Amino acid sequence: THGGVIRMILALLIKLDWRNPSWFSQLNIANASVSLIDYHDETQQGCIKGISLPIAALNIPLVTPKNDMAG
After folding, report:
1. C-alpha dihedral sign at 47, 8, 33, 28
2. Which residues are 5's β-sheet partners?
3. 21: left (phi over 0), alpha (psi -120 to 50) or beta
4. Would the pLDDT of 16 be above 80?
5. pTM of this prediction?
6. Which one in 2, 24, 40, 63 has a CA-CA gap of 20 to 30 Å to 10?
7. Partners of residue 47 on adjacent β-strands
């Protein structure tokens, strides 16, 4: 899964030791969820906007095969 990678990135942003096993067991990253990070190249700083949000919380219309077909 991508949960481990997401936990590593979040830990680095908030300056926690990503190798700490309790970090991996305490932070739940749900399947098919979205974590949002606002990253600025100029400052090389990241701001966590959301962790493990359900896709519905983003309020983005999903494309389905039916409405994606032309014609």
Report:
1. negative
2. none
3. alpha
4. yes
5. 0.67
6. 63
7. 38
Amino acid at 53: L
pLDDT at 68 over 70: no
CA distance 46 to 37: 6
Q: Is the alpha carbon torsion for 58, 64, 70, 71 positive or negative?
A: negative
H/E run at residue 59: none
Chain centroid to CA 19: 19
Q: What was the pLDDT predicted at 26?
A: 85
Query: Which tens digits make up the pLDDT trace of 19-59?
Result: 888 877 888 899 889 999 998 888 888 899 999 999 877 77
Consecutive H or E run containing 2: none
Question: Who's near 6: CB < 8 A, 6+ residues apart?
Answer: 29, 35
Residue 19: how many other CB atoms lie within 10 Å? 9
